[in-house]
Amino acid sequence: MARIDLDLAHSYRPNPAQDSDYALLPLKMSFEDGGAYALLGPSGCGKSTMLNIMSGLLVPSHGSVKFDGTDMTRATPQERNIAQVFQFPVIYDTMTVAENLAFPLKNRRVPRETIRQRVGQIAEMLEMSHQLDQRAAGLSADQKQKISLGRGLVRPDVAAVLFDEPLTVIDPHLKWQLRRKLKQIHHELKLTLIYVTHDQVEALTFADQVVVMTRGRVVQQGTPDALFERPAHTFVGHFIGSPGMNFLPATLQGEVLSVAGQVLGRAPRALPAGADLRLGIRPEYLALDAPGTAGSLPATVRQVQDIGTYFLVTLDLAGQRLKSRLPADAVPPAAGSPVGARLLGAHTCFYANEELVA
Ligand SMILES: Nc1ncnc2c1ncn2[C@@H]1O[C@H](COP(=O)(O)OP(=O)(O)OP(=O)(O)O)[C@@H](O)[C@H]1O
């Protein structure tokens, strides 16, 4: 296993001049030895580019990749000792499950008994022990992808295992199980795992550290909890959460804070004057008061949806749409009724020019 340090940028164009010419804007980041990471972001944000630079399939146009301090920028995937799992199964149909799992070890001339033990361990973790002697050809797409995952995890000496949207072909029910399984496997095998996905649930269940990307930029790296509680950028607030964070335009006059054109009171924290300010509050933390309650702003309930495990209330506050999540045992207000929206609290965040400032 290895610590991976990136200090690079990448453009697929020969003479990049502006930000939009870069698939990856200049970035500096580290993946610690033994960590479970997810690269999360929408299609085209640069996740696969970053993964391919780490695996050695792509040489960055600028900067370097280091493994344990050694420059690996131009090293091949073999020299880097990386295992990679792709969206679609990469296995040998004519081989049995056991032979497929053993293949990466046999290739490295691992002793037969060690191979037998490791293949047994991996098959057990993936609940494939009963299929070891079956030919891969007869298996479903799900089962074949499980073999691919196993092949990625089977070598104990790899620098890292890179997963590129590995659960895409997996049936939704099994997907749910495998996400958890991978997390458990990470704890047992202590490999460095880096997992690319555009699915926040997948990233948040699997990873200890999530790297959120948009338009070639890393906007935040942090624990699932940090991404939820303190999104460092409005994009993270929008992208993480169901639904995402509410944002309201805010202005500061002296120490008086106004939100959506309505005076809220003294600013609760020091905020930069003159910036493009926004108040961010997650639907989970947006409490509803009786209309006219001090400290809350008047709003009207537009819609109440019973989601089963919670109610989702849509509000109109001076022309701004807000969402509030109420617990399933709450009595939600009726559509059309006036309420007070409590916007300030310990979980309220403030953004200036899209970046978290308080
Ligand atoms: N081989 C290539 N040549 C030119 N441009 C490319 C190439 N591969 C990717 N790009 C561009 O680089 C940007 C980042 O692409 P990348 O595939 O890394 O994003 P991604 O987040 O992995 O998206 P997806 O999930 O759709 O694969 C996109 O604008 C894409 O069009």
From TrEMBL:
ABC transporter domain boundaries: 6-240
GO MF annotation terms: ABC-type ferric iron transporter activity; ATP binding; ATP hydrolysis activity
GO cellular component, one term: ATP-binding cassette (ABC) transporter complex, substrate-binding subunit-containing
Protein origin, superkingdom: Bacteria
A matching Pfam family: TOBE_2
Record keywords: ATP-binding, Cell membrane, Membrane, Nucleotide-binding, Plasmid, Transport
Database matches in SUPFAM superfamilies: MOP-like (SSF50331), P-loop containing nucleoside triphosphate hydrolases (SSF52540)
Transport found in the keyword field: yes
Presence of keyword Membrane: yes
PANTHER family with a match to the protein in the record: ABC TRANSPORTER ATP-BINDING PROTEIN, MALTODEXTRIN IMPORT ATP-BINDING PROTEIN MSMX
Name of the protein described by the UniProt record: ABC transporter ATP-binding protein
Organism field: Sphaerotilus sulfidivorans
